[in-house]
Write a structure and sequence with these properties.
The structure is a single chain. The protein is an alpha/beta fold. The chain is built from 13 helices and 18 strands. The protein folds into two domains: about 5-105, Enolase-like, N-terminal domain (Enolase-like, domain 1, 2-Layer Sandwich); about 110-375, TIM Barrel (Alpha-Beta Barrel), CATH 3.20.20. The strands form four sheets. An eight-stranded parallel β-barrel has the order 4-5-7-8-9-10-11-12, surrounded by four helices. The protein has a three-stranded antiparallel sheet with strand order 1-2-3. Strands 6-17-18 form a three-stranded mixed sheet, with no helix packed on it. A hairpin with a 4-residue loop joins β2 and β3 (about 30-35). The longest helix is centred in the N-terminal third of the chain and has 22 residues, at about 80-100. The N and C termini lie far apart (about 45 Å). About 50% of the residues are buried. Bound molecules: D-gluconic acid and magnesium ion. The site of D-gluconic acid (GCO) has 10 residues, from loops.
């Protein structure tokens, strides 16, 4: 089963996506997500210039060998651009193999360990009434686990808080990279954040009771000792996890946080390699692996990370914002079903525009996601529809402190 053609499709149905489409000589096509939010064309060029010419004529069924060929064979390893490109090839080849077998991908990965993947949705509000409305709207949609992000007194805009959550906040995208000439600049104040957040979780717990799983994303903004303090302050509210408390590069930072708090910790959405996890897993410094198929080298590589995590009792909690395309989302759902150490799946829901280009078959019911039993990943790319949405340059925001110092966003 030789690879006959490879296309890189860049489209912007509401936000930018990069998709690799591999076609075999016998006409089977496979899709892979290569979207790197705000840096999309770097991956497109990497694929188009350096990877596509290597793929045509290769055996489409040799997935591990192709992975090693692109990883070891490049000499320059790892990094978000390289690993997103490899992820797209790997995912597309798994899609092809599963379509050729007439099976949903999760069957090839060992079969289902569960009936569906528990998903968490994103509730947010600039103040408590907005936040409560947003949580209620998510509960009505069927979510059984909720991420809570809140406005901070004194700050105009805060990561994770929809500008128009007032309308119920059941569907929104508060952070598409914005199509401005320069990144939007937001302001940040960690002391104000640390003072405010525990009171919000106290209010949410007293309104919604003790059993609802609640999550929170620190988005890499704290120092280790600040994160330790927040984790400790949130202990009475029994979080499912505190995510990305500190910047992702510093694995040792989690040691300090861990010494001070029993709040479960999740990290890894910006990681791109199993080597980013060696300290974190072997020293049991985290509870959840946040990596997505899209940014970690694909199904092959993330399955290895999760098997490594299982040795230490660490579970999955895959990244699933709207900048993971429906193709990347479907790949996540197949792994969610197949790995024993599944924890939870983030699910932000794509817009109608996006879903008109990517025809999905996965379903959400009673708080659980299922990838469907369609062969392969279960997603079709409508290339004609994609052509109606040309790429638009866009940036994620940047953060500055009151004195102008650039801070992690
Ligand atoms: C999350 C993430 C996202 C990122 C986004 C950046 O937990 O879902 O933090 O919201 O900000 O993926 O491109
Ligand atoms: Mg996050």
């Amino acid at each position: 089963m030789k690879i006959a053609a490879v296309d890189v499709v860049v489209t912007c149905p509401g936000r930018n996506f990069v998709t690799l489409r591999i076609t075999t000589e016998d006409g089977i096509t496979g899709l892979g997500d290569a979207t790197l939010n705000g840096r999309e064309l770097a991956v497109e060029a990497y694929l188009r210039e350096h990877v596509v010419p290597l793929l045509v004529g290769r055996d489409a069924s040799a997935i591990e060998d192709t992975w090693q060929y692109l990883y070891r064979g490049a000499y320059w390893r790892r990094g978000p651009v390289t690993m997103a490109a490899i992820a797209a090839v790997d995912t597309a080849l798994w899609d092809i193999k599963a379509r050729a077998a007439g099976m949903p991908l999760y069957q090839l990965l060992g079969g289902a360990c569960r009936v569906g993947a528990l998903a968490y949705g994103h509730a947010s509000g600039r103040d408590l009434p907005e936040l409560f409305d947003s949580i209620r709207a998510h509960l009505e949609l069927g979510f059984r686990a909720i991420r809570v992000q809140t406005g901070i007194p004194g700050l105009d805009t805060v990561y994770g808080v929809a500008a128009s959550a007032a309308g119920g906040g059941d569907r929104y995208d508060y952070e598409p990279a914005r199509p401005t000439a320069l990144p939007v600049e937001e302001s940040w104040d960690t002391r104000a954040y640390l003072r405010h957040v525990p009171s919000v979780f106290e209010a949410v717990r007293s309104e919604f009771g003790p059993s609802l799983p609640l999550l929170h994303d620190g988005h890499h903004r704290m120092t280790p000792i600040e994160a330790a303090r927040l984790g400790k302050a949130l202990e009475p509210y029994d979080l499912f996890w505190l995510e990305d408390a500190t910047p992702g590069e510093d694995q040792a930072a989690l040691r300090l946080i861990r010494q001070h708090t029993t709040t479960p910790l999740a990290i890894g959405e910006v990681f791109n390699s199993i080597h980013d996890y060696t300290t974190l897993l072997s020293e049991r410094l985290i509870d959840y692996v946040r990596s997505a198929v899209t940014h970690t080298g694909g199904v092959t590589a993330l399955k290895k990370v999760l098997d490594f995590a299982a040795v230490y009792g660490v579970k999955s909690g895959m990244h699933g914002p709207t900048d993971i395309s429906p193709v990347g989302m479907a790949a996540a759902l197949h792994l969610d079903l197949a790995v024993h150490n599944f924890g939870i799946q983030e699910y932000m829901r794509h817009s109608a525009e996006t879903l008109a280009v990517f025809r999905t078959s996965y379903t959400f019911a009673d708080g659980l996601l299922h990838p469907s039993d369609a062969p392969g990943l279960g997603v079709e790319l409508d290339v004609d529809a994609a052509d109606h949405f040309p790429y638009r340059a866009a940036y994620l925001p940047v953060n500055r402190l009151a004195d102008g110092t650039l801070h992690d966003w």
